[in-house]
Amino acid sequence: DASHEAGRNEIAPGGRGLSRRSRRRLLRHFMRDREGATAVEFALVALPFLAILFAIIELALNFWVTQVLENAVSDASRRIYTGQFQQENPGQSGGQLAVAFRQDVCARVPALFDCNGMVHVDVRRLTSFPNANPDLPIADGAFDPSGFTFENPGPDEIVVVRAAMAYPILVNFIPSQGHRLTGNQRLIMASTAFRSEPFTQ
Q1: What does residue 77 show for φ and ψ, rounded to 5 degrees?
Q2: Which run of H or E residues covers position 67?
């Protein structure tokens, strides 16, 4: 009958699979079939989209951490500026003063990172306001705070206060804010300079 004859026409001569006409028909059917296209398109764009999304989040977090550290250093330095910090910590060594001042700074930092374990402070007395920033605490591309110290400021002295840390980089394929360090880290630093008030020691 006609249906049997049509089925026979789908087979190429010699029984070697589909005829040329059938193959063209299947190809046209495949090209018109849109099932699963959305999933394929999402798979193609998902990886770069997620990478860019994480990069934006990390840059925003890096900016936030830097701003929080700067505000904390500025607020804590006011106690040095007025002499309150010196009056509350009489007769202590430079190392003890550095620990106490770092605690003052970290008390103003929310739980964004391990402040007491990561942040190092540097407080110096100068004879004049610096024309340039002090050397960065970097040695061979790594964070090196070994040169940091705490010089207890007296009244009416020029003081430079710095706080620095090595902050981890999560997305490593884009340029990052700040100085890059080895081990997928960047240097984050906050600083302020002022002349202390003529307080009474």
Answers
A1: -70, -20
A2: helix 37-82
Query: In sequence order, which residues have a C-beta less than 8 Å from that of residue 183 and are 6 or more positions away?
Result: 142, 166
Helix H or strand E encompassing 26? helix 20-32
Instruction: Quote the pTM value.
Output: 0.73
Strand locations in the chain (E): 120-126, 138-139, 142-143, 158-168, 179-181, 185-195
Task: Identify the segments of the chain with pLDDT beneath 50.
Answer: 2-15
Q: Residue 89: its pLDDT value, please?
A: 92
Return the pLDDT at 146: 94
